[in-house]
Design goal:
The complex is a heterodimer. Chain A has 14 helices and no strands. By secondary structure, chain A is mostly helical. Chain A folds into two domains: 63 residues, no CATH class; 203 residues, MetI-like (MetI-like fold, Orthogonal Bundle). Chain B has one domain: MetI-like (MetI-like fold). The chains are: A mainly alpha, B mainly alpha.
């Protein structure tokens, strides 16, 4: 795993040096490019006058010390930029994941119980739509309908313009405002969270519901289910307390996959909803050719991926005793 | 190359009528889009850049999906968008399949350190969320549709490498390969004649479904501003224009619907292909 981490960092570094676009333009601005003194000073300051190999070693050494360099555009350390913006993204992804799991499992159970009935067909189509809709487009549409037309949910951003941010404890506005006992801020944060989280969670609903349906149908063909039904247990008991518990096991593995989907979606959803998270930071950075920032976000994405995979493996092993090898 | 596995008896086994209907619908939609993309220059009433009426006019008989901020016909522009998105998606898939198959076949067939090295590289590429990596690559190469295309190929090929490798390894162990080796057929010939035709189906099915996903990714990159640039009628770029004219819903609606139809249709076709080629059985 450390090897994979080093690989991730190296790959990102290589990618960032493919560039024919000159990062100097974004540092000093086009006007100053003709001024050799400014250019030389900027090159020296950002280490661009060294060879690529020595840049690489400096970069790796700094990275090991937790230093991702300084953003060209915000002029702050990339790590602290990311640190500031991570809670917003996490709040959004967790909310979306929760929505995806709850509705996904529910829909999957319904679809399996009414196999090939109309509920099943609707669930299948709903799931397909979730993975086929461009997240940014669905976001725009949702904003247009629920904010502009119906006016029942607020527009972009994390809070009403009037509300002030709750003091930072976890960085999750909903949790922080509750901890401070500030109910109006809490409602504002929650309402702002609903639309983006639903848009983002939709895709997860699709992924989860298909899987739950399939594994529940597998369980239905097992003998214990037949025994339960033969004993006259209510269908609800058979499904919810017996079959579903076993059927949910594979769902754990899909969570890592769903998380990848969420990161991808978060990047696009955040732009539409002006959500001040890592995703919109990444987009800003790549528009401005701010390489330290782009590198930082990409590494963060890779690492997040790695961690979720690890957590999934651990969860799975602890949930299913058969997996334990040692 | 698929003829080897798709025997007629496998086709249409336990497939309810409505699913056959869906795959026909999918095929129909894809065919229609391709037809539109190819023939558009001959019958399109306007060019996509032509100003045809008032700005920001709503949908009407003359302009089915209204006009945009410059007074261009949104419906016509959306149709022209197919001429950007579809070829790009096809090219990305073809290049990714070729590159991925090459790597996957070599890794699976030769095994050992070749396999180890190639697959670590595949793991590495797949350790990133695709959009993030594609963004980073496009940003470093410089924004633009050609660079976005390169980035998407670089992000996409590992999937096929992994798929084909698994198949090749499964097929390699079968008796007919052993007998071919025994009678002295050269290794590359075994790979090409005996193993590849038996291994290709999952790649083919996935590639079909991925056509839609690449359309989606292209639009995403353009939406961010890293792919096609605004005047060109690309679906993602058009949605960006729709976002700036938020209250004129039709500007973003038309290209969005176009994307969804293509992605859904590709899914139907991919499903149908999987059923009729019976992917699960092809390897054993």
């Amino acid at each position: 795993m450390p090897l994979l981490l080093a690989g991730i960092a190296t790959l990102v570094f290589i990618v960032s040096r493919l560039t024919p676009a000159d990062p100097l333009v974004s540092i000093v601005g086009e006007r100053n490019l003709t001024n050799p003194e400014v250019v030389a000073a900027a090159k020296a300051r950002w280490g661009l006058d060294k060879s690529v190999v020595s840049q690489y070693f400096t970069y790796m050494k700094n990275l090991l010390h937790g230093d991702m360099g300084t953003s060209f555009s915000t002029r702050r350390p990339v790590l602290s930029d990311l640190w500031d913006r991570l809670p917003a993204t996490l709040e959004l992804t967790f909310a979306a994941m929760a929505i995806g799991l709850v509705f996904g499992v529910g829909l999957g159970v319904l679809a399996a119980r009414h196999r090939n009935g109309w509920i099943d067909h609707i669930a299948r189509f709903f799931a397909l739509l979730g993975s086929s809709l461009p997240a940014f487009w669905a976001g725009l549409l949702a904003l247009y309908v629920f904010y502009a037309q119906l006016g029942i949910l607020p527009g972009p951003g994390r809070l009403d313009p009037r509300a002030s941010e709750p003091g930072k404890i976890t960085g999750f506005f909903t949790i922080d405002s509750l901890l401070h006992g500030d109910m109006s801020t809490f409602w504002s944060a929650l309402k702002h969270l609903i639309l983006p989280a639903c848009v983002l969670g939709w895709g997860v609903v699709g992924i989860v519901s298909r899987l739950v349906r399939a594994s529940l149908l597998d369980e239905f063909s097992m003998e214990y289910v037949r025994v339960g039904r033969a004993m006259g247990l209510r269908e609800r008991t058979v499904v919810n307390t017996h079959a579903l518990r076993n059927a949910l096991l594979p769902t754990i593995t899909i969570v890592a996959f769903a998380f990848a989907f969420l990161i991808t979606g978060a990047v696009l959803t955040e732009i539409v909803f002006s959500w001040p998270g890592v995703g919109s930071y990444a987009v800003d950075a790549s528009r401005k050719l701010d390489f330290p920032a782009v590198i930082g976000v990409t590494i963060l994405g890779g690492v997040a991926f790695l961690i979720t995979n690890l957590i999934t493996d651990i969860l799975y092993a602890s949930a299913d005793p058969r997996i334990r090898l040692a | 190359m698929t003829a080897a596995v798709a025997s007629p008896s496998l086709v249409k086994r336990h497939r309810p009528a409505w699913r056959r209907g869906l795959s026909l619908v999918g095929l129909g939609i894809v065919a229609l889009w391709v037809l539109v993309a190819i023939t558009l220059p001959w019958w399109s009433p306007h060019t996509p850049l032509e100003v045809v009426g008032d700005r920001l006019a709503g949908p009407s008989g003359a302009h089915l999906m209204g006009t945009d901020a410059l007074g261009r016909d949104v419906f016509i522009r959306t149709l022209w968008g197919a001429r950007t998105s579809l070829p790009i998606s096809a090219v990305v898939i073809v290049f990714s399949v070729v590159l991925g198959s090459l790597v996957g076949a070599v890794a699976g067939f030769f095994g050992g350190w070749v396999d180890a090295v190639l697959m670590r590289f595949v793991d590495l590429t797949m350790a990133f969320p695709p959009v993030l990596l594609a963004m980073a690559i496009t940003a470093s190469l410089g924004p633009g549709i050609r660079n976005a295309l390169i980035a998407m190929v670089l992000v996409w090929w590992p999937i096929y490498a992994r798929l084909l490798r698994a198949q090749v390894i499964a097929v390699r162990q079968r008796d007919f390969v052993e007998s071919a080796t025994a009678i002295g057929v050269p290794r590359w010939l075994i790979l090409r004649r005996y193993i590849l035709p038996m291994s290709y189906t999952p790649v083919l099915v996935n590639a079909t479904m991925d056509l839609g996903q690449v359309v989606l990714l292209t639009a995403s990159l353009s939406f961010i501003g890293l792919g096609a640039r605004p005047p060109s009628p690309e679906w993602g770029a058009m949605i960006t224009e729709g976002a700036t004219n938020f209250y004129q819903w039709w500007i973003a609606a038309a290209p969005g619907i176009a994307i969804v139809t293509v992605v859904v249709a590709c899914n139907f076709v991919g499903d149908a292909l999987r059923d009729s080629l019976d992917v699960k059985d092809s390897a054993r």
